[in-house]
Each structure stands twice: as structure tokens, then as C-alpha cells.
Amino acid sequence: MAFKCATDVFKLENGVGIPCIGFGTWQSPDDVAERAVCEAIEAGYRHIDTAAIYRNEKSVGRGIRASGVKRGDLFVTSKVWNSARGYRTTLEAFEKTLEDLQLDYLDLYLIHWPASPSRFPDWREVNLATWQALTELYKAGRIRAIGVSNFRPQHLEPLLAAEVKPMVNQIEYHPGYLQQDVVDYSRAHGLVVEAWSPLGCGRVLNDPRLETLARRLGVTTAQLALRFCLETGTLPLPKSVSAQRIRANLDVFGFEMPGDVVAAIRALPEFGFSGQDPDKVTF
Ligand code: A2P
Question: How far is the CA of 114 from the centre of ligand 1 (A)?
Fold first, then answer.
């Protein structure tokens, strides 16, 4: 896939296109998310990623409206939080998300984290009940696509037998943490993989090995990391609250990334992992 601009898309199994780079809003406080989202859309992002737990959906919604860009030209994702797992509670959480965003549909709705075997004896049933709610909302036309986040193969497997399969898996993915087994399994089952924290939440940006590669291409390490996602078929969701960095992070289409640079990044040992293992997290 050779992406040329921010409105080029990844195609989902159901034919829906997702703009190939999205604007992340995790850790964007409510009072700044509105401005950041509006600036991102003005800069050219057409894909906004939020979640109920980010506690900024009202502000994200205001930023979307302030941009003046038509709703139909934007792709908006949100996620159901862990405390709302289950059928009825997920339906309620979805309505609250739409109300907070002041939108009448979502482009993509994700299960934020799997209920995992290590903590929930009935984890399959819990995830399937949550998934059933997403499926019904999807079939009713309230959501254009549905998926999961932070699901490893063992969590995905039961959902792959469902009436509607997940179309997206959003996972931590950056030059220091590739989760290749999760990427390969997800793709083998037709899911598009999205990268949360494609900059390693800033942790990987001062790595000297990445700095050397970035210097060679005449770009920043952030641009290197984002382009690496695209080169490896993964959709990056960089977050920033700085107007300058918001713009710079979109400027990733105007340079070549040779195969040996991709290979050099792939060969790096693990570094910069957030520590958030879906089978061990306690939230
Ligand atoms: P800020 O919001 O002040 O720009 P990730 O998307 O991997 O979660 O990373 C987000 C973190 O990286 C935030 O702390 C953000 O800070 C920082 N960041 C975003 N873009 C850049 C950039 N181009 N250069 C340096 N730091 C960046």
C-alpha cells in the first residue's frame, strides 16, 4: 500500500475506507482537546480517534463542529470502556458517547480492552455480550464499522466465529514494540491494524538508532516512526496538543523510506513498551 496523503484510505472488510492516519486524543485534557481537534482537522486530518475513558468526548465533539468540515468528510472512532462491558451497558455507553460527541452516528466503535482469561473466568461470554451490542448497533446503521482494541489472538478467536467479525484491531505499535504475532493474526483474519502510541508516547523519539535513521532521510524521529507504521501496513494515530507538531506529524508523505530503513527498524530489540499487557492490566 503506497499512501500519498492523509485522505488515502485503508479498506475494511465491509468496504468502508478509513483515512490512513488518524488524530489521537488520549491524554488530551478536556480543556485543550477542542482546540487540538479543530487544529488537526484544519491541518488536514480527517480521522479522529477518541474513547469514553479519555473523558474528552464533549470537547472532541466541539472541536469537530468548530472545524466546519462536513461530518460526512470525517471518520470518527470511539471505544466502549471496561466498566461498561456486557450487552445492555454497552448499548447505554454508546448512547452516552454519541450524546457527548453530539453526533448521530460513529464511523468506528471498538471494545477498548478485552476481558481476559487471567481476570475473568467468564471472559468469553463477557466479550461476546459486548460484541453482540456492537453488532446490533452496526446492523442498525448506527456505526459504519466495528472492531476491538488491545485484543491478542486468544481474545480475538471467539469473536471471529461471530455473525459479524471485528474489522479493526487497535494495538500499541511503534518502532520499539511491534507485536508481530498480533499483527499477523489480525491481518490473517481480515482486520486492519491501527497503531496507538505510534510515537511510543514520546518514549522512543530520543532513541539514537532512530535519530540516525531519521537524519539520513532528513526527517524527524516522529515522522520516521509514523511513516514506518504506514510502510508496514499499520494505521498510525499520533496525538499532540501542539499546533506545530500536529502539522509536522501529518507531513509524512513527501519522502521515500527505503526498504533497508524499514528492515533496520524492524530489527531493533524491544524498547519503549508502555507495560500495558492486556492479560495483566488491572483496569
Ligand atoms: P504533545 O502533545 O505535547 O505534542 P503518541 O501519539 O505515541 O501517544 O505520543 C504522544 C506524545 O508524543 C505526547 O506526549 C506528545 O506531546 C508527543 N509528541 C507528539 N508529536 C510529537 C513530535 N512530532 N515530536 C515530539 N513529541 C511529539
Answer: 26
